[in-house]
Recover the amino acids of this structure.
């Protein structure tokens, strides 16, 4: 019913009181003009824009959806106008490099903007969601000519971009991509093949669309090392329409406002981006930033669901709450019922811990790039490498199950469209799949990142977290759990995987539990930071903190138990 | 894509090898003509009808949906014809009393039929889902005249029925119902008010619809004891249309083929059913049977999701599985990947344990009614009272989260409509809400059933389960956990709730965890029964059994830990 209202003040509390964001970022030479006041102003303005322009289009975007007819995709009413207002106001360029026409603000500012945008309207936000990554990809890998032509307009958001990776037989396994690129006389290529699940492959939001496409050169080896990256614009600079067309759009469970396109390339003229055979590298440079944004989608959607459920719980009256003094035939607001309080406090515990972890990750992304000290840059890189898959997986899982819990607060009213809560559940489901399924995040964490260096980086991350915990009983409990987790990793798990005759499957059986256990440790760290922050106050924060320890944290022991059993079974 | 295919042989294995169903039921004087051969025949014929007639309408039912226009509801194409074939073939009357024109078969036969129907087409099955309960309600409470007029046609399914309970302000709290019934000169009543969420309130499946309506007489006290039950037919025997109309149908997340109606009664002529002020009693007599059917919806939907995911996992190739001998550039079927195997084995563990528990509950419902020995009838009543809320809550939760896990097997293909898996997720969500929300099931179990008798019935149930466990190490582990749970109940929990100054909220904080812990114990019992059964065989059963202990059971300790913390916090 009522649209999501951004609350930039809550984000600013986490950024400044908990994480001392502007203090850290202002110290970097990369952000000479940035300070706490600017951060506050930008967040407030962003909150206004999102609340007034983007949020009101969420419901109609779901109901009307993007419409396909004869290759043309029409976006829902209001989408083109609001997107035009969005880029013209400069919102896409917040964190873009000044040299490319961007505003040069820290990544974390863009992160909070995207959290609000996704909470307000997930379908709408799919369109600019890939913009920053595409711009960075072109910035780092494209020729000077391509950069001149495309970079400023992608940084500004005047044009939008796609990532054309998936094919019908090649989803998680991009090594199976078959789209072909044949050299042309002028140094360009003729690109042919069919790509699916292309978000924003066709639409009427912008006058041009820039496609980044994975394809295979004629002499390329099979597998992922045979992939190169190409650029195909919808319109060439001379106005020629490229030979790329949208064959249809998918009917989906949610995000109906975002056209998920089947794109056919029929000898489309393409330019190589980066070196031949290095296509995946060029795209995966941006992976941590992209996965951070998906994690923020989860956080934003869960916050939107919480807002709705909380408002409903304060108004809806059903039954007397236990111990209530209301008379027979009267009823209390359901916010007084323990089952409802538990749902709300649990989701709040996930949302605010998620913000602490996500905002910290955004800060670390900038420290990794811009800190003068190489050791600090390495520490930051370690954070981003290990924490990002946890954030993406655990918080998109929670967006779905937590939004479903918020739906439950509405009873039967949650299952009908009227209140808008079921849309959040449907929209949120996709984030568990794209940008690497949540199972792949878990494998990425354990198999690709933790085990290969013998758990060294993981142990160092836990040490770093432990030093920030403070002195409460909860901090002590967290410290012990971190020690247990690190010992499990470096002693039991590594030994088991390296034992003679060990099954190569072993770490794959444990990966999901390993990621979830680390998510619990990160949440415990986050709540200790929130509790220790100055000016933390009010039942919203304390109820969520208590709720975390009571209802969320016990999963840590469960996951450790499951992993123990799996090791013994190996 | 491919519709659900019933597999009556798997259900028969559980019924006969695990539960010795026909042996127990044949011994009852109520079922003189029933035997194992008849059971097998009926299940096979039911499987054929469901697979050939009902399952193919699932997808189109979702896409077309029930349509409302000027008070008339048109069901999706094929629905009227298939429903007419359904009742004319005698399927609704399987378990109806012979005196009323039913076939007098045991409840468990109807239970398996409904599991298959729901798996095949949840929206379609909503229509006959309330039939048996409405018939039983009329049978036990209505006057001879009403019985003569309505009972045979409800038992046969020629006419369908509704339960008109909910009002906009009265959902879980029926004590707030305001619909009024004013006496007329002929002994009948004029009924006025608006009811919402009325499944099948209007449709074109049958020539008449019988509404059972909760309303308040003029002199009724406030609260639930002021409610009486009334019958309003859509058409009177003389063909007069009653003053009850469908104002609109809801747009919902799922079960689009089932019209969820807003019904307006404008001084509709109504007959009293049962005694004034006993309206809730008349409806709640059927509660265990109705909740069993909703639990079976969960089991059926999860089985349908598993079928789809399993078939896809056997065909879809992505990446080499760990330890695979496939060459670079080739890929294995995803069924070989541990993450996929875990999802499939976990859902199978829930489905088959759910069947054991649900079928046993259906058998106990008949033992409760028909066993010659009063003590055995009491044992059966205890089972139904304690197990039914657990089944309804835990298995409808799992239908939603497990169907979502099955969707994940499809990756991006699961989020689009094409494969039909996202429909199951949307459809399944409602079962966590209706027939008493899952939170209310938990309160029903702990606050209304376990605590009032000091845990006596609960302890007796656990003793009964423990004697059936056999002698394996798993059985021993289960026995210990049952002892721990019983001791927690009778010593710690009761003491805490009865301590001077104890908060009346305390058991409400623990109710969800208590129900889930009991669900784990029931599943452990069920898997020990399956493992001990003759002819249990094949990886489907053994993988699920292993999966239960490895990935599902650890929740027991988690729930005990959460409850322990909650007691300490009290």
């Amino acid at each position: 019913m009522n649209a999501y209202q951004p609350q930039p003040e809550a984000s600013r509390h986490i950024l400044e009181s908990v994480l001392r964001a502007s203090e850290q970022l202002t110290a970097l030479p990369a952000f000479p003009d940035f300070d706490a006041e600017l951060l506050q102003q930008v967040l407030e303005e962003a909150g206004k824009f999102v609340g007034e322009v983007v949020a009101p289009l969420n419901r109609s975007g779901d109901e009307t959806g993007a419409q396909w007819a004869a290759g043309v995709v029409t976006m829902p009413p209001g989408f083109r106008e609001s997107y035009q207002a969005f880029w013209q106001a400069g919102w896409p360029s917040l964190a873009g490099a000044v040299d490319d026409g961007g505003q040069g603000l820290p990544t974390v500012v863009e992160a909070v903007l995207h959290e609000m945008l996704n909470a307000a309207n997930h379908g709408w936000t799919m369109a600019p969601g890939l913009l920053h990554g595409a711009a960075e990809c072109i910035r780092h890998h494209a020729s000077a000519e391509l950069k001149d032509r495309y970079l400023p307009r992608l940084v500004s958001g005047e044009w939008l971009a796609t990532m054309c990776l998936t094919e019908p037989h090649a989803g998680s396994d991009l090594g199976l991509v078959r789209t072909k690129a044949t050299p042309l006389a002028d140094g360009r290529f003729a690109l042919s093949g069919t790509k699916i699940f292309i978000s924003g492959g066709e639409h009427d939001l912008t006058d041009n669309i820039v496609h980044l496409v994975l394809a295979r050169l004629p002499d390329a080896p099979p597998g992922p090392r045979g992939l190169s990256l190409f650029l195909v614009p919808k319109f060439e600079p001379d106005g020629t329409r490229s030979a790329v067309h949208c064959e249809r759009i998918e009917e989906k469970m949610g995000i109906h406002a975002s056209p998920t396109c089947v794109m056919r390339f029929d000898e489309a003229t393409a330019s190589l981006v980066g070196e031949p055979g290095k296509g995946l590298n060029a795209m995966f440079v941006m992976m941590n930033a992209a996965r951070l944004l998906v994690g923020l989608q989860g956080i934003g959607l869960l916050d939107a669901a919480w807002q709705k459920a909380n408002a409903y719980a304060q108004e809806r009256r059903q039954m007397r709450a236990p111990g209530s003094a209301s008379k027979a035939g009267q009823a209390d607001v359901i916010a007084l019922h323990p089952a409802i309080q538990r749902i709300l406090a649990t989701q709040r515990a996930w949302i605010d811990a998620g913000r602490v972890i996500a905002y910290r990750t955004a800060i670390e992304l900038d420290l990794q790039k811009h800190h003068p000290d190489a050791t600090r840059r390495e520490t930051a890189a370690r954070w981003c490498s290990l924490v990002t898959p946890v954030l993406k997986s655990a918080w998109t899982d929670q967006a779905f199950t937590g939004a479903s819990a918020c739906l439950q607060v509405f009873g039967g009213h949650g299952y009908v469209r009227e209140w808008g809560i079921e849309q959040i559940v449907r929209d949120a489901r996709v984030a568990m799949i794209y940008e690497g399924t949540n199972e792949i995040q878990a494998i990425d964490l354990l198999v690709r990142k933790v085990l290969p260096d013998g758990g060294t980086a993981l142990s160092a991350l836990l040490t770093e977290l432990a030093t920030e915990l403070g002195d409460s009983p909860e901090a002590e409990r967290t410290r012990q759990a971190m020690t247990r987790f690190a010992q499990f990793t470096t002693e039991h798990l590594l030994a088991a995987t390296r034992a003679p005759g060990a099954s190569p499957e072993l770490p794959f059986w444990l990966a999901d539990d390993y990621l979830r256990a680390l998510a619990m440790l990160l949440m415990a760290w986050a709540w200790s930071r929130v509790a220790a922050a100055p000016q933390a106050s009010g039942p919203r924060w304390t109820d969520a903190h208590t709720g975390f320890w009571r209802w969320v944290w016990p999963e840590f022991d469960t996951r450790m138990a499951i992993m123990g059993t799996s090791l013994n079974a190996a």
Summary: DSSP finds 21 helices and nine strands in chain B. Chain B touches chain A through 78 residues (CB under 8 Å). The longest strand of chain B covers residues 260-273.
